[in-house]
Amino acid sequence: MTKITKFSAKNLMSEAGVDPDTWNRIPSPEIVEKTVREIEKRGIKVIIAADGEEALALLKTIIPPGAEVMNGSSTTLIEIGYEDYISGGKSGWKPVHLAITAENDDRKRAELRRKSVAADYFLSSANAIASTGEIIACDASGSRVGAWPFAAGHLILVVGINKIVPSLDEGLNRVRQYAYRLENVRAMKVYGTPSMIGKCVILANEKNEGRSMLILVRESLGY
């Protein structure tokens, strides 16, 4: 079952002034199937999960014991229970994020963060998926998207079907009109500073077979 937190979209929509009827709809099964076909044409493997619980179970089977694992900040990963799982010390993986937060020296911590995008397995979500196959994510600093193009050994994206839109242009509109506004409200509450659309990545094609994978979840998750 999805874990709803105070920073989940449903609890920030009113304050963010977003339109969920436009940007947070559940698409038809036919649109989901078309989207999967288009993504896989681009060299990205897609696995369908019924819900967040199944998505987390898939991650546990996909990532091998002892693997070096890093994740970008993600409401979706929180909602499927991934952050609770990884912080509990029972995963059998090597969580890079824990090494970063344990480092007290600012310079060393920054260096660890920079290197973390090259982890064996990098987990993230996305802000939009075009039914034409492109996957879009934006971030203020780039720490959440820096691993996408090349650095990470394996890229695993966990995304709810609520983020499917008809086209790449509509995906970028979803970032501006929905995801950014929600993230800006969250950033003000958590950090006391506004967010921004600083760095964007469009995963349009993957030439390295087996590197990129999308776990597409049949429910509403994240921003």
Please give a structural write-up.
The chain contains ten helices and ten strands. By secondary structure, the chain is of the alpha/beta class. The protein has a single domain, classed as Rossmann fold (3-Layer(aba) Sandwich), CATH 3.40.50.10420. It has a six-stranded parallel β-sheet. It is globular.
Structural class: alpha/beta
| Rg over alpha carbons | 16 Å
Helix content: 25-40%
Q: Give me the strand/helix succession.
A: HHHEHEHHEHHEEEHEEHEE
Topology:
Elements: H1 13-16, H2 20-23, H3 29-41, E1 45-49, H4 52-62, E2 68-71, H5 75-79, H6 82-87, E3 94-95, H7 96-102, H8 106-115, E4 121-124, E5 128-130, E6 135-139, H9 147-151, E7 154-160, E8 164-165, H10 168-190, E9 199-203, E10 212-217
Parallel strand pairs: 1-10, 2-3, 2-4, 4-7, 5-8, 7-10
Antiparallel strand pairs: 5-6, 6-9
Helix pairs in contact: 7-8
Features:
globular, 10 strands, Rossmann fold, four-stranded mixed sheet, six-stranded parallel sheet, alpha/beta, 223 residues
Task: Give a concise summary.
The chain has 223 residues and is an alpha/beta fold. The protein has helices at 13-16, 20-23, 29-41, 52-62, 75-79, 82-87, 96-102, 106-115, 147-151, 168-190; strands spanning 45-49, 68-71, 94-95, 121-124, 128-130, 135-139, 154-160, 164-165, 199-203, 212-217.
